[in-house]
Fold this sequence. Notes:
Layout: E1 16-22, H1 27-41, H2 48-65, E2 70-78, E3 81-88, H3 109-116, E4 119-123, E5 131-137
Helix pairs in contact: 1-2, 2-3
Amino acid sequence: MNGYIPPTYLAPLRRQYRLRLTVGEHSARHIRAIARSLLDEWEMRELSDAVELGVTELVANVVRHVPDRRCEVLMVRQTSGVRVEVSDACAQLPRPSLELSTDAENGRGLLLLDAVADKWGVDAAGRRDGKTVWFECGTTRSGLTGAASGPVGPGRLQLDAEVAEDR
């Protein structure tokens, strides 16, 4: 054989990656490496900085705010970009900080996410406990709509609690 591999023998391109874990202080570094590897495989390297920052902020929120620190990270390849979801069993919805001092070391995660993602939101519809915080990169920024919590934070960010049909 001359090295030619017929297309029927090629492994299909993975369209999504799911990881269930209990996160700790250093978990974000490993999840960033996985995200970078997937984006390389999907030939979407230009999204790496935004996706890595976004997933880092969401995992950090699980470490800080979810008592058992368990979550599921899902990365989905879309036609024109990528969607990242971080789900946990904590019913408390994330809220951007309304007022931050210049010395504050925490509280900027959702503001950073809003800056790097094309769209993001929270899916808590139909769930008794828990939520999914998601973001998309490489898609057209359409702004966040929904009435989960009304206008909040600088720039009047809104959380979208009914996005299940986006999947």
